[in-house]
Amino acid sequence: MKIYTKTGDKGTTCLIGGTRVSKASVQLEAYGTSDELNSFIGWLRAADLGSDIDGILARVQNKLFNLGAYLALDEKTEPTDATSIKEEDVSFLETAIDDIENTLPKVFAFIIPGGSERISRCHICRTICRRLERRMVELFELTHNETEQARLTLQFVNRLSDFLFILSKKVAQNEKKDLFLWEK
Q1: Which bin fits 48, alpha (ψ -120 to 50), beta or left (φ > 0)?
Q2: Would residue 37 be called left, alpha or beta, if left means φ above 0 and alpha means ψ between -120 and 50 degrees?
Q3: For the CA atoms of 110, 113, 119, 124, what is the dihedral angle to 10 degrees?
Q4: How far apart are CA 182 and CA 184, in angstroms?
Q5: Strands (E), the chain
Q6: Is 105 in a helix, a strand, or coil?
Q7: Are 64 and 36 in contact (CB under 8 A)?
Q8: Quick one: angle between helices 148-174 and 117-143, nearest 10?
Q9: Alpha-carbon dihedral 28, 34, 36, 41, rounded to 10 degrees
Q10: DSSP code, position 116
Q11: CA–CA dist 21, 28 (Å, integer)
């Protein structure tokens, strides 16, 4: 089977369910950003942050595939387990955040990204995650999607950006790097 189908040569693509849409649609921007984030998290995992963190990030990558599939559904196709984020996925991230945060000193200032390549990778993932959240809000507002699944996907992405922020602080601590604090 060839990798190219030529069906997208005129600027359209097929959603899950069969509906063809423009590659410039808000929906494609949302699930494309999910794919981009997943790729950058793969790059973050390549930084060898330890087996505990790698396990968390591996689970996140799998859930981002679910989330991307959910965002790729057309209007007539119902979500399945393979296209769903669950309450337990949000709770998993909250527990991971709490576990890491409990090992860190309190910081009461804005942190400027940087300090090392690993720290910067965390921040790059965090900012892409925030963009994904904005694209999802835009899509859900446009489509009037106020379902429980939409709510859970937004919660998951919001917690993921928080996790990536806390992870950047943990990496800085592990590397014995000072945080770059914003000087007003």
Answers
A1: left
A2: alpha
A3: 120
A4: 6
A5: 12-14, 20-22, 111-112, 180-181
A6: coil
A7: no
A8: 170
A9: -170
A10: S
A11: 9
Cβ neighbours, 10 Å, residue 117: 10
Taking each helix axis as running N to C, give the angle between helix 51-71 and helix 26-45, from 0 to 180 degrees, rounded to the nearest 10.
170
pLDDT, tens digit only, all 184 positions of the chain: 788 888 777 888 888 888 898 888 999 999 999 999 999 999 999 999 999 999 999 999 999 999 999 999 989 999 889 889 999 999 999 999 999 999 998 888 888 888 899 999 999 999 999 999 999 999 999 999 999 999 999 999 999 999 999 999 999 999 888 777 788 7
Amino acid at 160: L
- Structure tokens given for 52: 């505990």
Dihedrals phi, psi of 164, to nearest 5 degrees: -65, -35
DSSP string for residues in 12-42 = EEEPBTS-EEETTSHHHHHHHHHHHHHHHHH
Are 152 and 81 in contact by the 8 Å Cβ rule? The answer is no
3-state secondary structure of 45: helix
Cα–Cα distance for residue pair 93/100, rounded to 1 Å:
11
118 closest CA partner among 174, 183, 57: 174
Q: With beta carbons less than 8 A apart as the criterion, state whether 90 and 34 touch.
A: no
Retrieve residue 109's tokens: 């200032």
